[in-house]
């Protein structure tokens, strides 16, 4: 008999963009409703690059979470070339900062303050290794000579592998891994390297973005890849391997900024991420491994206990229905919609 109900520890989203201001107030309740904790990306303008900024940002997020008082934002700092080891130590000592995020300068949204020359941050990375503070990487090179579909694979060879060999004590998360090269690489390393996977990369390949018209709401970075890569990601996510866990990379942009001559990268999945994940795991006959992927593996990597709360997922004949968009006026976002029905409904029994 097929499984129609699943009760799991309340999930964590280990890679989330909540933005700031009106957008933050619009999207934060969507994550806070379904997730116990989330690793909060620091790519605001200006970037969240000091402990004081992260502390103030955390307070704004908690205010925006409203009634969802159990939601815990896990804060990160944006690694700039002027970051100091003292700031990292301070963030570690206060317990507020869980990780630093490395954006290669120019790789994606609000990455202009990112790292151009890794040599300039080696001192900070050594301190992080000493403290056990993980480095979260946007794993794409920015070399204009490298084709956009190859940028992840080249990053592994040129940046990630040399860095890991140089600083084997540094914990690293390859964020939103999108290729077989990425999942193979993570599997080839015994300790200290993990990867997050998004919902949209598990469901869509690059045809969805480009065939029959260009779909700006499927445009994200790293860009969707070919089918063989999507299959590799599904295999990694549903394997139960503790090195792979959920990071939605839910990245809201206003509709006018997506449907634009130069549309922004990002897919907004916070509202329906868990429903779609249950759909994927059911398709892969792996529902019994969903809890590991969304609620256990990530917590373990970050040294946290799994949530004491639970989430119930119910498969109903009636498909899940969400409004296509949230918000109004200039602050309107389109929900992730791959264009076929999803039957998994989410509830929170405690
Ligand atoms: O699609 C993306 N959107 N990828 C990123 O790396 C950044 C994110 C954003 O902040 O919009
Ligand atoms: Zn991201």
Write the layout of secondary structure elements.
Elements: E1 5-9, E2 12-16, H1 21-34, E3 37-40, H2 51-65, E4 72-78, H3 85-94, E5 97-102, H4 122-131, E6 135-137, H5 151-166, E7 172-174, H6 180-188, E8 193-197, H7 199-203, H8 206-210, H9 227-237, E9 244-246, H10 255-258, H11 273-283, H12 290-301, E10 310-315, E11 325-328, E12 331-334, E13 344-347
Parallel strand pairs: 2-3, 3-4, 4-5, 5-6, 6-7, 7-8, 8-9
Antiparallel strand pairs: 1-10, 10-13, 11-12
Helix pairs in contact: 1-2, 3-4
Quick summary:
The protein is α/β, with parallel strands linked by helices and 350 residues long. It is built from twelve helices and 13 strands.
Shape: globular
| Residue share in β-strands | 15-25%
- And the CATH topology? TIM Barrel
Overall average pLDDT? 97
Strand order of the largest sheet: 2-3-4-5-6-7-8-9
Note the gap between the termini: 27 Å
The CATH architecture category equals Alpha-Beta Barrel
Elements, N to C (H/E): EEHEHEHEHEHEHEHHHEHHHEEEE
CATH class placement: Alpha Beta
Structural class label: alpha/beta
Helix content: 25-40%
Number of helices: 12
Give the bound compounds.
(4S)-2,6-dioxohexahydropyrimidine-4-carboxylic acid, zinc ion
- Give start-end ranges of low-pLDDT stretches: none
Task: Tell me the name of the CATH homologous superfamily.
Answer: Metal-dependent hydrolases
Largest sheet: 8 strands, parallel
Radius of gyration: 19 Å
As for the number of domains, it is 1
User: How many runs of DSSP E, i.e. beta strands?
Assistant: 13
